[in-house]
Amino acid sequence: MTKLKNRDAIKAQPIVLIGMMGAGKSSLGVRLAEALETTFLDADAEVEKAAAMSIAEIFEKHGEAAFRDGERRVIKRLLDDGPMVLALGGGAFMDDQTRALVQQKALSVWLEVPLAELVKRVKKKPDKRPLLKGQNIEAKLTELMQTRGPVYATAALRVDVGGGTHEQAVARLLAALDAHYAA
Fold first, then answer.
1. What is the CATH number of the domain that holds 120?
2. Structural domain contains residue 158
3. CA-CA distances (angstroms) from residue 131 to 55, 63, 137?
């Protein structure tokens, strides 16, 4: 486990993980929260709980605009609960109001992964990704990266979590967080 010089500062506010689908926001978020001895929450799971239906069902029955509205309200509520590690869905940070809220109340961390690796990862569970339904996965991810990349780049931190094990990625995250708070 990485020895943190700035553990208290890191744990003082919510850490919000953003990035493309397949970047590891949930899987790495759980491990990061464990390393920091704090709570982990997944915004998508919290939206599903609040709506009593899956994200795919929300998209199908109510559309993306209704999903984003509900998502924004859930994220606001979660960020008001204090320090934690919170994983956002891939499109959440694209919403201007959600992004402003995150930037005001939390430390945003972009989990960056090369396109080829993202394609491999999401092909394993394409049914869980409403935006990929009926799409060429590589083409759609390329399009999403081009659109989302400049917005994700406004995050407070940017950490390459591609390649290697989950443990190595979490170590890189912890080192980046520690360095951020040392400045």
1. 3.40.50.300
2. yes
3. 11, 12, 9
